[in-house]
Design the sequence.
């Protein structure tokens, strides 16, 4: 099995579909599958889409893959994609900084809480010793 490009009636790439490994050539799909005179809705193309195309288009006349976007559309995509990663990276860096600050704050609170717990345990131990001392003094005095 292999992925085969599916294009619309004008040749613009739609998606890959799974076909048998032996698939080759160009297969049209008609609006009425029983009537080959009806309009074509899509094609399966037995030639893989080459890398580097922004919006692949199958040239039905010359039987080859071409770019489906104009140069102006490609330039606009490049322009917006150049700005987008910076925004994404900046946003991720800010989120990372916020997370680090929150972790630091949580760690400081945890450390303070552990210190309070230790102080309370020491106070309880001290009270226990005082209580034991008082009860032993009372028991020893009888």
Sequence:
């Amino acid at each position: 099995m292999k992925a085969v490009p599916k294009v619309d009636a004008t040749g613009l790439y739609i998606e890959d579909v799974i076909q048998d490994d032996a698939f080759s050539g160009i297969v049209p799909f008609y609006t009425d599958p029983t009537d080959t005179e009806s309009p074509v809705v899509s094609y399966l193309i037995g030639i893989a889409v080459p890398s580097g195309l922004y919006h692949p288009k199958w040239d039905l006349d010359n039987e080859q893959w071409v770019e489906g976007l104009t140069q102006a559309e490609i330039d606009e995509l490049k322009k917006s994609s150049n700005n987008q990663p910076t925004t994404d990276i900046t946003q991720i860096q800010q989120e990372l900084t916020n997370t680090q600050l929150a972790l630091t704050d949580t760690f400081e609170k945890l450390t303070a809480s552990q210190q309070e717990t230790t102080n309370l345990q020491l106070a309880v131990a001290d009270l226990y010793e005082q209580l034991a001392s008082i009860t032993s003094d009372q028991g020893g005095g009888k």
